[in-house]
Specification:
Blueprint: H1 6-15, E1 37-41, E2 44-47, E3 52-54, H2 70-80, H3 91-103, H4 116-130, E4 139-141, E5 149-151, H5 154-163, H6 166-169, H7 181-188
């Protein structure tokens, strides 16, 4: 049983001065102290007190290949020698999009975003294009159900519900309905 967490306790005391609860995620506030890691290799992690662990959670998924995988380290080293951000188009984003399309067969197009809010905006534009709606309904509180928010009229709600019926979504392609992807998207606001 591991009982050496002296350095972790010091870091927790320091973290409590700047992080709410001393951790950046409430899930990490574990007894007797949160684990503060300093290194990892393969499936193993080492904390600041020198204790070694096997990471069965894979850092919640992204470490599926383990820590410091040689091919990933080399790829990151090559990329680190290039500018971190161009603020413009570059060939790597095309390559990544093509790779995603190869892995996710239903991905006709790929959109990269900088935030969750931006991703939601893209999804809303696509939904408006698919349903041929040109503008968003104004949000207002429902008089019949206080505390719930409605958008648009009841008739508008019905149109949106019918747009999501399986008969319209499954196997139907925008081209066969006489609407091209670009024309539908421009009608809802250009991406």
């Amino acid at each position: 049983m591991i009982e050496n967490w002296d350095r972790s306790k010091e870091l927790l005391a320091r973290a409590r001065q700047s992080l709410a609860g001393g951790v950046s995620s409430p899930f990490r506030a574990k007894a007797p102290v949160p684990l503060y890691f300093e290194d990892g290799c393969g499936p193993r992690l080492r904390d600041v007190d020198g204790n070694e662990y096997i990471d069965y959670q894979l850092a919640w998924g992204p470490m599926i290949l383990g820590y410091k995988h040689p091919k990933l380290v080399e790829a990151m080293r090559r990329q680190a020698e290039l500018p971190a951000c161009y603020g413009a188009q570059h060939e790597l984003e095309i390559s990544v999009a093509e790779k995603i399309q190869g892995l996710v067969l239903c991905a006709e197009r790929v959109a990269f975003t900088s935030s969750g809010s931006e991703a939601v905006q893209v999804a809303q534009r696509l939904a408006r294009a698919f349903t041929c709606r040109r503008r968003r309904g104004a949000a207002r509180v429902s008089a019949r159900r206080p505390g719930l928010t409605r958008t648009g009229s009841e008739r508008g709600l019905e149109r949106r519900r019918s747009a999501l019926e399986p008969s319209r979504c499954s196997g139907t392609d925008l081209e066969s309905q006489g609407r091209s992807n670009s024309r539908g998207l421009h009608g809802a606001g250009a991406l």
